[in-house]
Design a protein that fits this description.
Layout lengths: L3 H9 L1 H21 L5 H28 L11 H18 L2 H4 L5 H28 L1 H4 L2 H36 L4 H20 L2 H6 L12 H9 L2 H22 L1 H7 L6 H29 L1 H15 L14 H21 L1 H16 L4 H7 L1 H20 L4 H4 L1 H16 L12 H13 L1
Helix pairs in contact: 1-8, 2-3, 2-8, 2-9, 3-6, 3-18, 3-19, 4-6, 4-9, 6-18, 8-9, 8-14, 8-17, 8-22, 12-19, 12-21, 14-15, 14-16, 15-16, 15-21
Length: 449
């Protein structure tokens, strides 16, 4: 069991990585299309390749970290990957956002190659770093404290996501007002790329120093045998498939967010973008609080059903944004964005808990630790789905008259409609029965934050 301080240290590791991932997820497509004029289809393919890389990387390094013994690995079987991966992730992030410095007059093929190389490197090291880190969770926590630790992770994710998303919106506005990535805009982008990379590295240091790895003596494992065991877990397979399908919709709306707020909502100034970012942050806070509270009373599955159902009603409304009389377009945009983020926040809150609980339940049933396999393999279908999402993003953005942006909500809803019935077949609350003392302890930790 971790002390409160150690739980905070573990949770805060996600701050820097979440900033980087949000900026890459939201801003990469926009930047390469709008500042270096990369063809939308090539842009979509370049981003899709990165998602395929992270799927393979997460699975392989999850298995590899499972296979090491904490008693023989000099720096610990999970910590080793963190110490190597954190600085290399920061380096690849910085390189991804400075093509204008290295190839200012590059051809389409040169820019496309730069995007593929550094987007792939970023996602490779993200899987290298984050899969062992997340696989660490069921090894250092007990089931009755896991929601509390996950809440801390998601508070960190929330703040990091707000910083990353807010920066992306402000960056787009600043670059647009500057007439491109030139002068102060170029220095601004480079400076923050370096700052965010340093923050990402520093955030891991307290946890590396203060948290001792659980002693796990492992025997030599066969990757395919371990995978077969995981794939026989019905709840794991059901969640993995349903979340992969949902991820296509999440990818589409995330990658096209900047274009949507500019072209459809008409947010053309840095101030408008700042207000929009602030509202999205508030929506995420309220969403996390709502779904966390509901999950403690009704369970994770019930909370997911409610959030998915809400999105099924709300997301199809994008064709109506701007067409409601007497309400200013910008207000309609703020309202739509607020409730869309509120509904989607559940999809960001629960995945860590679900996978950690499934891995912990498996270890209790089989006496074998497969946390890395469970955490890593689910990245393969998820990121294949996200790769497909980026291909669709490239296609939608290439359509004339912003048709792809206007019908963004209904397109995302299609994937919700498919994902929800599949999700219903799984049980995501294996440790739902908790003692009153455990619930009170979790409440204290959430109140502390």
């Amino acid at each position: 069991m971790l002390t409160l301080r150690q739980k905070i240290y573990y949770g805060m590791c996600r701050f820097g990585t979440t900033i980087l991932l949000n900026v890459v997820f939201i801003a990469t497509f926009w930047m390469y299309s709008n500042t270096v004029d990369l063809d939308p289809m090539l842009n979509g393919i370049g981003n899709a390749v990165g998602k395929l890389v992270i799927g393979v990387s997460s699975f392989f390094f999850g298995f590899l970290s499972d296979s090491l013994s904490s008693s023989t690995a000099k720096y610990g079987r999970r910590k080793l990957f963190i110490m190597i991966g954190a600085p290399l992730l920061g380096l690849s992030f910085t390189m991804l956002f400075i093509p204008h410095y290295i190839i200012p007059n590059g051809s389409q093929s040169t820019i496309f190659l730069w995007l593929i190389i550094w987007n792939s490197m970023f996602h490779f090291f993200y899987g290298f770093l984050l899969t062992p880190y997340q696989s660490w969770l069921p090894e250092i926590t007990k089931s009755d404290e896991r929601v509390g630790v996950s809440t801390m992770m998601n508070v960190t994710n929330l703040v990091g996501g707000a910083v990353g998303s807010g920066f992306s919106l402000l960056m787009a506005g600043f670059i647009r007002e500057s007439g491109g990535v030139v002068g102060k805009a170029a220095i601004f982008l480079l400076s923050f790329a370096i700052i965010f990379s340093v923050v990402e590295i520093v955030m891991f240091i307290p946890a590396l120093i203060s948290i001792k790895e659980k002693h796990v003596a492992t025997e030599k494992k066969n990757i395919w045998k371990e995978l077969k065991v995981a794939l026989k877990n019905k709840n794991y397979v059901v969640w993995m498939i349903s979340y992969a399908i949902l991820s296509i919709g999440i990818t589409i709306i995330s990658a096209l967010m900047l274009d949507f707020v500019e072209e459809v909502l008409g947010l053309n100034t840095t101030l408008d973008s700042f207000i929009f970012a602030a509202l999205m942050f508030v929506a995420m806070v309220i969403g996390f609080f709502t779904w966390s509270t509901m999950s403690k009373k009704k369970g994770i599955k019930f909370s997911l059903i409610i959030s998915y159902s809400f999105l099924l009603i709300w997301m199809p409304l994008t064709p109506l944004v701007g067409k409601i009389p007497l309400i200013p377009l910008i207000v309609q945009g703020y309202i739509f964005g607020f409730f869309a983020v509120f509904g989607m926040s559940a999809a960001f809150l629960f995945p860590y808990v679900i996978i950690a609980d499934i891995a912990d339940k498996d270890e209790k049933d089989t006496t074998q630790n497969r946390s890395g396999i469970y955490t890593g393999f689910k990245s393969i279908p998820t990121n294949i789905a996200q790769a497909g999402g980026f291909i669709l993003v490239g296609y939608l953005r290439s359509l004339d008259n912003n048709i792809g942006l206007i019908w963004l909500g209904p397109i995302v809803t299609v994937f919700l409609v498919i994902a929800l019935p599949i999700m219903l077949f799984g049980d995501y609350d294996p440790f739902k029965k908790k003692t009153k003392a455990a619930i009170m302890e979790t409440d204290k930790e959430i109140d502390f934050l």
